[in-house]
């Protein structure tokens, strides 16, 4: 898809994120909005997958390690055809397949593992990637992480293993919006310089603007074709991207908009895409 098509999808995904959270009355807008352009570019331009056959053996794997931002993933999966868009409005409802964090046992197509315990997704991705290597399969494994999540020690144990085993079928993506639930990362527990840290752990590193489709496409192309090392894409993003009153505010990490805020947010998203 060209950038105009990706932009139109991203606009609709952001609107659906706001609608879902409003109907649910809870959830995480900040990180779902910041990851939107990453997910849209991955699913519609680069991922090897089959929405009509989610367990297709040749598929690439996507693990949303930052599971609290599943609203964005759900909206993208629905748009890609994994399940009807109408199911989005059941988010966080009793009996829904769309739980507050991805839950594999609920049977939602496109969910590879249950996530949300921060720091665990990369370890699972390393295990899958290593297994695929042993079986001489060409599938890629994409792990989407938060930037605050980089404070977890388990991330670095997994990163060390991935570098050691030269898992060039593993692609990590950091949604680097620089905020977490308690405030700015650097005020909670600084993680800079994140690129040099991954380089030290024997990863190929790429830093980009996570809202620029040209840079996203470039990064995914480079990562898919890089040999000998795992790749991490450090995507600099804006928490709450697209909704002016949510942008760069930790308070919108994990609360839903009320009706007035919902109408205002949808209006702002549409205006920002004109």
Explain what you see.
The protein is globular. The longest helix is centred in the first third of the chain and has 22 residues, at 3-24. By secondary structure, the protein is α/β, with parallel strands linked by helices. It contains ten helices and seven strands. The chain has one domain: Rossmann fold, CATH 3.40.50. The two termini are 19 Å apart. The strands form two sheets. The chain has a five-stranded parallel sheet, sandwiched between helices. The protein has a two-stranded antiparallel ribbon with strand order 4-5. Helix content is 42%, strand content 12%. Helix 1 packs across helix 3, helix 3 packs parallel to helix 4 (70-80) and helix 3 (36-46) crosses helix 9 (213-225).
Proportion of residues in extended strands: 5-15%
Sketch the topology as an H/E string, one letter per element.
HHHEHHEHEEEHHEHEH
Ends distance:
19 Å
The coarse overall form would be globular
The CATH architecture term is 3-Layer(aba) Sandwich
> What class do helices, strands and sheet pairing give?
alpha/beta
Number of domains: 1
CATH class categorisation: Alpha Beta
Sheet with the most strands, sense and barrel status: 5 strands, parallel
- Unreliable segments of 5+ consecutive residues: none
Mean pLDDT: 98
């Amino acid at each position: 898809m060209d950038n105009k098509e990706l932009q139109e999808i991203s606009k609709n995904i952001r609107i659906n994120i706001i609608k879902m959270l409003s109907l649910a009355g809870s959830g995480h807008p900040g990180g779902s909005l910041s990851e939107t352009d990453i997910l849209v570019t991955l699913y519609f331009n680069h991922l090897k997958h089959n929405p009509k056959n989610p367990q297709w053996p040749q598929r690439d794997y996507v693990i949303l390690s930052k599971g609290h931002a599943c609203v964005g993933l759900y909206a993208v999966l629905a748009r890609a055809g994994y399940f009807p868009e109408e199911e989005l409005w059941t988010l966080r409802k009793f009996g829904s397949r769309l739980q507050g964090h991805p839950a594999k046992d609920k049977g939602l197509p496109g969910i590879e593992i249950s996530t949300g315990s921060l720091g665990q997704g990369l370890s699972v991705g390393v295990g899958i990637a290593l297994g695929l290597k042993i079986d001489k399969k060409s599938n890629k494994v994409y792990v989407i992480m938060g930037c605050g999540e980089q404070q977890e020690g388990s991330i670095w144990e997994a990163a060390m293993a991935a570098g050691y085993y030269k898992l060039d079928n593993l692609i990590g993506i950091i949604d680097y919006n620089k905020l977490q639930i308690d405030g700015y990362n650097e005020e909670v527990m600084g993680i800079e310089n994140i690129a040099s840290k991954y380089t030290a752990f024997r990863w190929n590193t790429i830093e980009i603007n996570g809202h620029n489709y040209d840079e996203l496409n470039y990064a995914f192309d480079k990562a898919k074709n890089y040999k000998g090392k795992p790749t991490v894409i450090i995507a600099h993003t804006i928490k709450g991207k697209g909704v002016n009153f949510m942008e760069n505010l930790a308070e919108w990490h994990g609360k839903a908009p009320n009706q007035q805020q919902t109408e205002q947010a949808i209006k702002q998203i549409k205006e920002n895409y004109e």
